[in-house]
Structure formats: structure tokens, C-alpha cells
User: Fold these one by one.
Assistant:
Number 1:
Amino acid sequence: MAAAQAGDQRAYTRVLNDSVALIRAVARRQGVAVDALDDVVQETLLTVHRVRHTFDPSRSYDAWLSAIAARRAIDLLRSHGRREHREVHDEFAMDTHADREDASTGTLRQQEAERLRKAIETLPPGQREAVEQLGLKERSLAEAAERTGRNTGALKVNLHRALKTLRDRLHGES
Amino acid sequence: MSDAARHEALIDALGAELTPVRRLLPPWRRALGWLAVVAVIAVALFVRYGAGTMLHRWEAAPDLGVAACGAVLTAITGALASFMLAVPGRSVKWAWLPVPSAVLWIGASGLGCLRAHIPGMPVLNMHAANDCLVFIITFSIPLSGLLIWLLRRACPLRPVLTAVTVGLASAAASASLLEICHNFDAAATDLFMHAVAVAIVIGANALMGGRLLSKV
């Protein structure tokens, strides 16, 4: 990681690849369900990338990584808890009042599309560009890179961040 | 995309945008930076008010001197604890570091209530006690703000706990600064106002500072 802090890409990808197993183990210990472990891995990797300057090479990398992974695991457990609390699981209601296409469904869809469009508009320029090129216009990475003049790595990261921001925003509103 | 491939894609993407970073200074050096700002304000207050009144109070009532030392120590240990807590992997036990000095500060201040009045010094009235409240809060706002700003460059994984130590450090620093220009005998109303001010500063930090730090 010390080499990665200095900008060594190979050392960085190696240390991140080696970190996945430990992140999963930490998340498991925190009580994260097996099917959600990989979400914790993704969030932890993004946090590690953002705060890599806080690692002190004279101290343990595993302790540093474990602390971040444990935090992200707790965040995920909390957000799942909140979502489950809001969602209604009433099978009887589902059977007797199944969704039917009515006048309000169309309006609702329109409103949702409008909300998504507005949320995309408020994204930072780089993230918005990635969503527009890769998500809405369905261009390939190479095409999008050519059009925007960014490299494919940056586009992928921007798309990932944009999706996270949108997910957070739309879940936060609903 | 399988999960392993998803991770690999993200790792490749993060690798592609890797840039060298400037490592964070050790927590004690970052704490020293904040304490240096407090020290500059203290020097300015000494230049303006002199040390005479403060020394007279301490001579007549040593417990006030002990309380002031407790406040200074709490500011130092509180700042150090905040910077320690903001680095991932550091023990959460650092949060206990300012506790003994805070007990000394608050305990010695409380004893002041039981002491006889210092001859020749005016007893504080309610109006002046309010000034103490305003002084502590007014100084705590920029000191907390600066500390939170410095901490945001790190990664406080326990934002609310870190914000509480931030509040304690800035309230203690403000109380220490107040000691320099405080020309009243410490009466019960005064100590009560100090306690209220410290509680407000810590509470406000826990509420707002926690949010600011959790966005990191």
C-alpha cells in the first residue's frame, strides 16, 4: 500500500485484489448476509481508494483495512434495516389487491422517469456524462471514451459512482 | 457480471485512476497544528489583558488554577484523541484520553462553589455570567470548525464520537482562554454557566459535527 500511495498501479491492484478476502471475512463477522458480502467489498474498495492517504506504512495494513470494512458493513446493515422497516410485506394484501394498470400507473411511471431525469441532471459533470454515454445512449466503453476524451477506467469509475449516488438519492426520497 | 469479475473491474478502474497521494501527518503533529492556533489566540489575550488578574485569582484560590490546568490538559488530550479517532485502525480507546483531565477540570471547578469568596474581587452577577457563556460559545465555534475541517482530510469512521471529542477539546480550549481575561471570582452561577456552555458546545458538535464528519 505504501507503494500505491506513491502511485505504483501494479502494487495497488495487487493489494486491492489481496484485500477482497479479508473484507469479506470482516463483513461476515459483522453479520452481513452472504449474498450482500460483495456489496460491502465494493463499497470498501471505493472508500479505500478515497482515503488511501490515511494509511500509515509503519502500522498494520490489515487493521486499517478491517476498520474501514467493518464500518462499511455496519452502514450496509443499517441501510438494509431501514429499507426493510419501510417496505410492507403483506402477502394477503398482495393477493387481494394486486397491481392493475390504471390511470395512475402511467402518471406514476412518468413521475418516476422525471425524478430520475432530475437526479441525473444534478450529478457532477463527469458522472452525468458517464451515465448519458454508457447508460442512456448505450454506447460501448471505447465509443464513449472516444467521444468524451476520457479514458475507459475513469468512465467506469464515474459510472459506478453515479449509480451509487442515484441509488442513494432515489432511495432517500422514496 | 459475476461478483469476482465486478470486483476485478472496479479494481482495474481504480488502478487506472491512481494518482500519488500526500500521506497524512501523524495525529500528534496534526493536533499540534490546531493547538498552535489556540496558543496564538492565548498570546494575543495575554498581550491585551496581562497575566496579573489570572495569577491573583489563582493565588487566592488554588483550585481555580487546578481547574485551568485541567482545562488546558483537556484541550490538548481532546485534540489528540480527535485526530487519533479520525484515522482508520486506531483504537477506539483513545476516546478515553481526555476523560481524566476533564474530570480534573470539572471537579476542581465544582469545588470552587464550596470555597470562600476571594477578597477584593467582585462576585459574578447573572449578566456577567451570560458573558462567560457567550465567550465560550463564540470561541468554540471557530475552534470546532477548524478542528472539523482538519479532521475531514482524514477518515473518521466514528463521526459522532469524534465530534464529541472535538466539542470537548474546543470547549476546554475556550474555557482556558476565558481564564486569561476572566476578572471575577468564581461563583456558583459562573460555574453553572461554564457547565451549560460546555454542554451546548459538545451537544452541538455531536449533532452537526457528526454529520459533517460522516460525509467524509
Number 2:
Amino acid sequence: MRALSLTLAVYAVCLLLLLPHLPLWLDELLNIIGSTKPTLAGLISYVPQNSGAAPLGYLVQRLSFQLISVSEFSARLPSVISSLTAAAGIFALAQRLQMRRPLAAVVLFCLLPMQWRYAIEGRPYAMALALSIWATLFFLQQRMLPYALALTAGLYTNPYSFFIPAAHLLWLLWNAPRRLARPLWAASTAALLFLPWYLYARHAWATSVPSHGQTAPLKAAELIARELVGAGYIGTGLALLLAGIGWRRCHAENPARAAFLAACVLVPFPLVLAGDAFFHYFLAARQFLFVLPPLCLLAAFGLHAQNNNPVPPAPGPLAL
Amino acid sequence: MLKTTILFPLLLALSLYEDARLFTRPRENWRAAALALKRLAAPGTCLLFLPADSLNLYLVFDKTLATHVCDAASLRHASRIVLAASPYAAPSKAIPPSFQELRSTGLRAPTVTIYRRK
């Protein structure tokens, strides 16, 4: 725990020192324009003008502006806090999954360029990522009220974060269908709570970006290979290789755990592509942000010594 | 185990390198462009924004820029036009032909160009 505190403290200092040094770019400014609308009604009517946008990230940024002032620092502070919360969530998840070196997963998560970029950007992606990580933890702990709340907040931050509970449910359907009812209820409740926003925003979403049609499969594959972790083809290759090795070691110890992490990595891919096709939105690497946590966890499992003897599952309602 | 003890630090090192590069590669600087516009805004000068709604991006840094925006009257009388072009905008045909370009500064993506009446 002391090592985690020290890691998070160093990470926090780095983020806080560096974040005022990057000039704001277009998308951050568009976010700030929304967050600084004179009235809440103005903010709510502005948000859907950005395709796929939801209001929670804007509201949190508005709060940051009200508490501090409008600046690069306060615009990005919610992302820094979210990234730190996410890193703590990765540690908790790694412990829950009985990882022997949980800190390795945390360090990798903090340093992955795709995560790092959004940790110091005045947009809500880091917040959505943190919510998806904590939702995964609540799911494994079978704490359905916090799970439903995290999913709802995730939807109201970035709707694509809902592809992670889709992975949870699919895994459960495959592994323990009798336990499906409560998580399904929680996810359905979150989806229902998001419905009013969807109905309100969908027309504006549809007109806010020119129709891009479907991204060609080859182009999509190329983009994912280049930008998945934000470190080019070599970075993606290394991350996938490590995750593959980690999956094998994890599978040797506990097949259900390996299947769970694999589902969280793989399920969002087709859902992102389907979502983009449905909304005529262009494919962007940030839409795959939510696969980074399970990818880091799998990669860190690769550091386990080869062990072909199954280990006893962690105690708890979902024994992994 | 040997493979991962090499590959894992390699991925960390590559990530660290890319993280540092975020701060060194060229990046849009709207604050610099807004400051340049503020310096250029003077009597006889009007500011033209391309596209027109990109004015909102500069107003995040300086609300007073809105008072210098070109309208039909100021375009007739201005001795100088400053064009602020977003990197996401199409090329400009907004400057009347009676003006000639003096100089242009790419402030890391947004561009500020100064025109003087011929």
C-alpha cells in the first residue's frame, strides 16, 4: 500500500506540474466553451452539438472552473483526478484478481501514452475511463448499486464506456449464467436512466458531424494497430504480445479469470465499430480507451512465473 | 518469464518516450494566436475570423476580441484587416481585393495574416 501511495504521489506531481505546459487544442476549447456557458440550460443545449457527447464531464469541468477559475489548469484538473482514481482502481482490480505484482499494472497503466494523453486533457475521457474501471471492480465484488451508479455516470460521461459492461454480461452469460440477473438488472437500469439524454441528444448528434460512412476494415485495423496504446505499431505489438503471454499464464492459473480479462479487451472492438456505423461517426483510437485497463492487467499477469497448477479463486461472490 | 522481464520494461520505456514527445511535438496554440490578435487590434483595424464561428475559440482567452470583429461597415473603412484562420478552415476568399497581404504568421496551427488597404 505504501508503494502504491508513493507511485500515485509521483504520478500526481508529474501530471500537475506538466499540465499547464500544453497549449489547449481545438477539442479542449470546444469543451471549455460548453462548460463556461452562462447558464446550465445553455450548457445542456450546447453539449449535443458535439456528436456522442454527454453532459457529466462538462458539469464537472464547470465545477472546477467555479472552484478555481477558468484556466488550462482548472480545465484539466478533473482529468488528472480521474486518472489518479483510475490508477487506484487498477490496483484494487489487480488485487481482486490475485495478481502478484499489482503495482506493475498500475505503472504500465499510468505510462501508456493513450491514457497519459487523456489524463492531461480537458475532455471527459479520463473520467469515463475511471468510471469503467470502478464499474468493473464493483461488478467483480457483485455490489450492484455502485455498479449501476458507475455505469450510469459512465454513460453520462461517454456513452461508449457502456461496452465494458457488455463484456461483463457476455462473460457472465458464458461462465455463470445463473448469476446474470442482478448485473443485467443494474446495466438495464443504467441504460434506462440514460435514455432521456439519448432521446434529447440524438438528433443534434446526427447533424453535428458530417456523415462519414463505415470505416473500411483494413483502414480500421491499421488505425488500431498504430494507435491502440498511443505508442505506434511497436507499442501496440509489444502490448498485445505481453497481454497474450499474460493471458496464457493467467489461463493456466484460473481460466475464468483469463476469459474475463480477454472479454473486457475483445468485446468492445466490434461494438465500437458497430456504434460508429450506426451513428455514422468516424473511427478514432480514443473509442478503444476502455480496453486499456484489462490490457494492462493481462500484460502484468505476464510477469507471473509460469505455473501450470491452478490457484484457488479469490473468495467472494464472483470467484475469480 | 525471461521474455516478459525484457518486453515489459521495453514497453514502459517506449511509453515514457512517447509521453515526453507529447510535450515536444508541434501543437495548436490558440492562446498565442489570441494574444497576437489582441496586439494587432487597434483603431482602423478589424479582425476577420475564418470560419466565422471560430471567434468563439479566441474568446476563451480574450473576450474583448469580439469588439474588433469586421462587419460590412468596418470592412469599408478599415485600413488594415487581420485574418485569423483556423487550421480546420477552407482557404479564404474573405478578403476584399482592395487589400494586399503584408505578412502571415502560423502560430502553431491557427494562422494570423495581416492585410493593408492598397
